[in-house]
Description:
Blueprint: H1 2-21, H2 28-46, H3 50-66, H4 68-71, H5 74-89, H6 99-118, H7 125-148, H8 152-187
Helix pairs in contact: 1-2, 1-8, 3-5, 3-6, 3-8, 7-8
Amino acid sequence: xxxxxxxxxxxxxxxxxxxxxxxxxxxxxxxxxxxxxxxxxxxxxxxxxxxxxxxxxxxxxxxxxxxxxxxxxxxxxxxxxxxxxxxxxxxxxxxxxxxxxxxxxxxxxxxxxxxxxxxxxxxxxxxxxxxxxxxxxxxxxxxxxxxxxxxxxxxxxxxxxxxxxxxxxxxxxxxxxxxxxxxxxxxx
Length: 188
């Protein structure tokens, strides 16, 4: 069930992020439902899994360092401030990562830290391609993680990333389609 929670957590995170940033959410209750679902799902995923909490904190922390303008809002910065509590409450469940875990951690953290340095626009063909590659990479991480014995903590990270990037790819495609449609209407 935790893999389903992870997928839904990534999905709800990106739904909130993209729809809120682009003014698609008209009702405050929808914002609060999306934020609340993120907290519930992160709590379910983290309370008994120190390694998931740690990688989540590291990924978001590095992403925030390279992309602070996106993390400088109350909800987003509160995620960073409260994540250490997940580390404290799950500390007794820590497990030393195996060699495949370390490789996974390095690749995933590097990609998440570098992406904001490469892409700063809200939507573009380049961002769509990068997000498609990230989705494929997350699927490979899931399958490879199960096959090579990556710890369940990091397989959950892949499931979270799949939900996140799946929505992102769809939303990027929608924005590009909508922009091209608007350009066609103006030029007609």
